[in-house]
Design brief:
166 residues; Nuclear Transport Factor 2, Chain: A; alpha+beta; 7 strands; 7-stranded mixed sheet
Length: 166
Amino acid sequence: MLNRPKDVTVTRAEVEDFIFQQAEFIDARDYESWLSLFTDDGTYWIPATPHDSDPEMQLSFMYDDLPTMVARCERLLAFGTAGQQPITRSSHVVGNVRLGEPDSNGDIVVHSRFHVTQFRRDVLKTYVGGFTHHLVTTDEGFKIRRQRVDLIDCDGLHDTILQIYL
């Protein structure tokens, strides 16, 4: 059940712990737990240009709904996935977590900054930018309705295709 009672107080520390846990799930390749953090209508978006506002009308590196996230995670975990042999390892550093104003749905809006390093085939790749999470409260705790990942170099040249989540 998704709801956000008007009298619920949310602290930065609570949402910060939630976002840190999300990053830990990705680094541990625990995609089942990571997927459980999203609502049934959850989306994950990485725009390809700064200030994009409509993932359905503008080019994106990634714009996944929950069924697409499930399929991508299954491919990432499948031993026979050639694109992930050897597997990509990642390490997240997330900081500058700030609570924003609730959105028009009453969702909790959280802004943060990230530095993600990925290692695969003796190559380190770094991604830097900002996260915007739209969270809802449930009986189980926070859930992600929308996550936006803004890369600082989104409109630059990229020599690899993003295959794993940041």
